[in-house]
Amino acid sequence: MKKINNQPLFEEYLSINKIAGYFSSDMKEWMELYLFSKNEYLCREGAEMDYLYFFVDGRAKVYTTLSNGKSLLLSFYEGFKVLGDVELFQIRGAASSVQAIDDTYCIGIYLPPVREKLLRDPVFLTFMGFSLSDKLNKLSKNSSINLYYPLEHRLSSYILATGVKKESIHFKENLTYLSEMLGTSYRHLLRTLDMLCKRGIIRKRENTYEVMNESELRSLARDIYR
Predict the structure, then answer these.
(1) In the chain, fewer beta carbons within 10 Å around the N or the C end?
(2) Locate the Cyclic nucleotide-binding domain: which residues (predicted)?
């Protein structure tokens, strides 16, 4: 995490996302702009979280760790999101891990000096209610996706969400880790990747996969995990 002293950029993110309107009083003096580099964690499951973050630019994946030590994908973040809303009300470790896929910008509020002020702010609490309701709905939907969607759909969504866009999308991931993240076996993941290759949707180039038919891949992905 790196603090960014760029006032025009800070003001732009505040304005675009209408963040000032989520509070009864001016909270700008408590806000800072932060940059999380690619692959850096915005928070780790179980770790203390002292910040409320407004996710304003970039991409990140959200996952939880199961009792057997494996990880399971919950969702992707892209566009405006709130991090730390659950932890604001329950002072304990982060409920899940959030890891940046690209360089990601957040506006952060350090909570210890303002927590009680926020918990007495009716405008902010109303906003938090909508935020938590939206997260609950998406968590319910994504839990069903992990149970019932075929792997080819979940994998397609993951490739689009995490791939690097050049002239085409390039995808590189540790496949053992990926099979855990998608709740499948390593062999089933390999069979599904091979099937996508045979259909001409992706192709393998050494240890990287290149997307050859992006429209077909997006059709399979169906905006799941969003």
Answers:
(1) N
(2) 31-109
